[in-house]
Amino acid sequence: MPRRPGRRRRRHPGHPRSLRPRARGPRRPCDADGCPDPDDDLDGVADTSDRCPTDPEDRDGYLDEDGCPDGDDDQDGVLDGDDDCPDEPGTAAERGCPRVYQAVQVTRTHVRITQQVHFATNRAVILPDSFTLLNTVAQVLRDYPEISLEVQGHTDDRGSDRHNMRLSQQRADAVRDYLLRQGIAQERLVSRGYGETQPMESNRTPEGRAANRRVEFVRTDEAARRYREEQGAAIP
């Protein structure tokens, strides 16, 4: 009997063509009730905001809001799984832990020195007793090739503002030049003098003035910049 035009013939459920799998989109993970979950990986970040919805966030205080586990939290180049100090920048040679340096410490924002860089009085000539200290700073930069620095020069308030600004710049330049001679790439170092504008102590005492005559090494690399943004801080 011929079919009527415009009517489709219904097939029995057992017909071979009715058994073809229907095309479906990707399935989201489901729990025991068979329904999709708003937080599939149960990391506390909703799937709508979770960049890694099936890989739980590691909740270590670093970029926890993106929902992804972080491979190198301290940004030292050593993956967390291999890092014995995952929250503290270190070196590969020390399995991610910081090497212990004499009078120098590496932080997320600075390469801090616990001794003064000594100069000839009122000049930008580095005294020999500071060579060992600066050699250690150079070793830090070799151990941490991702770090770049602003070498800052500071003075006390004796002398004119113009003289102090010029002297602080010359001293910062002298320290940068010393590090360049140790083989540090010039693109990793800039120098800037601040004169007497950023005192650490009062200039009313000899001890305070001595503390204010100083060199600082402030990190300017991407990891330090990102950390400052997260903390709402600027380069001092």
Structural overview:
The mean pLDDT is 84. With 236 residues, this protein is α+β, with helices and mostly antiparallel strands. The protein contains 4 helices and 5 strands, in the order E-E-H-E-H-E-H-E-H. The protein has 2 domains: 40 residues, no CATH class; 131 residues, 2-Layer Sandwich (60s Ribosomal Protein L30, Chain: A), CATH 3.30.1330.60. It starts with 103 loop residues before the first strand and ends in a 5-residue tail after the last helix. The chain is elongated. 22% of the residues lie in helices and 10% in strands. A 5-stranded mixed β-sheet has the order 1-2-5-3-4.
Order of helices and strands: EEHEHEHEH
> What is the overall number of helices?
4
The fold-level CATH name of the largest domain is 60s Ribosomal Protein L30, Chain: A
Mean pLDDT: 84
Q: Can you name the CATH architecture of the largest domain?
A: 2-Layer Sandwich
How far apart the termini lie comes to 92 Å
What is the CATH superfamily classification of the largest domain? OmpA-like domain
Low-confidence stretches: none
Radius of gyration: 30 Å
Global morphology? elongated
